[in-house]
Design a protein that fits this description.
Blueprint lengths: L6 H15 L26 H14 L31
């Protein structure tokens, strides 16, 4: 979530993220064209790095959030041993 110290912005971001996790439909994008008609033009395509990052995060969280699963995707959660960076261990 991002919003800095703008409480309205961070509140809106939290609501949007929570709705997405529950599988609610996305709201229409705000108009960026500044035409005042409330209609947004098409969004530019996401950069491949960002699209790949979002997909990795979605796949990682899908076992725990059914709304993040792709249609027909069956996910089996696998327990993994937590990894602690060496620098975080006592005496490191």
């Amino acid at each position: 979530l991002e919003g800095g110290y703008n409480l309205e912005s961070i509140s809106n971001s939290m609501v949007a993220c929570t709705r997405a996790l529950f599988g609610d439909p996305m709201p229409p994008p705000a108009s960026e064209a500044g035409t005042g008609d409330g209609e947004a033009g098409p969004a530019p395509p996401a950069h491949h790095f960002h699209a790949e990052t979002v997909e990795r995060v979605r796949a990682h969280l899908a076992p725990f959030w059914p709304s993040l699963r792709a249609p027909g995707e069956e996910v089996v959660a696998q327990a993994s041993e937590p990894r602690v960076p060496a620098a975080a261990l006592p005496g490191a």
